[in-house]
Design brief:
The chain has about 180 residues and is mainly beta. The chain has one helix at about 55-60, and strands at about 5-10, 15-20, 25-35, 40-45, 65-75, 85-90, 125-135, 145, 175. It has one domain (about 5-150): Sandwich (Immunoglobulin-like), CATH 2.60.40. Helix content is about 5%, strand content about 35%. The longest helix has 8 residues, at about 55-60. The radius of gyration is 17 Å and the shape is globular. It starts with 6 loop residues before the first strand and ends with a strand. The relative contact order is 0.26.
Length: about 180
């Protein structure tokens, strides 16, 4: 397993445990994932697609879209549907400088929902997704962080039981740069 707080180069694989609780089913999905984050790329903000209002479209035209393709593999081989992993882009201070209203899409960079367990049921099965953010050229996205527990804070609803396997949260995000 990749140690909490690890700093990897783009293209290096992290091996992480996952355990997601599904409150409606009252079950857990468990497994081991491999995560490879490719280098951050840029494109004009005007290339970002979505159903934006005029103000958001004007903001996009003045800014840059930063994106990193992410390949997630099933390393454990058991059939499960992982939850949506939490990736964040780091901009050197307090996050992206630009917020737009609407769902952002970029050709060739699809943020996809996790695969169903029947699509992710064998060792080596792949899921390709993407992290997309918009900022100015003076505040470029320089790192990508993986922040699911135990590396980051566990997100829980009030009625959810605390996962037994993970008594310590926020041990340190895995960072690619």
């Amino acid at each position: 397993m990749t140690r909490p707080g690890a700093r990897l180069r783009f293209g290096e694989k992290a091996i992480v445990p996952v355990r997601h609780y599904y409150p409606l089913l009252k079950t857990y999905a468990e497994g081991v994932l491999g995560i490879v984050v490719q280098r951050i790329q840029t494109t004009p903000g005007s290339e970002v697609q979505g159903n934006f209002d005029e103000d958001s479209r004007a903001v996009l035209k003045r800014h840059t879209a930063y994106y990193a393709k992410i390949i997630i593999t099933n390393e454990s081989g058991n059939a499960f549907s992982p939850g949506t992993p939490r990736f964040t882009g780091e901009f050197g201070d307090f996050g992206p400088a630009v917020t737009v209203t609407g769902e952002m899409r970029l050709p060739g960079c699809r943020e996809r929902y996790p695969p169903d367990s029947d699509e992710f049921d064998r060792k080596g099965a792949e899921w390709k997704t993407c992290l997309l953010a918009v900022s100015s050229r003076s505040r470029p996205m320089t790192e990508v962080r993986y922040e699911d527990a135990p590396y980051g804070k566990e997100i829980q609803f009030e009625q959810d039981p605390s996962p037994d396997f993970n008594k310590h949260y926020n041990l340190g995000a895995i960072t690619w740069s």
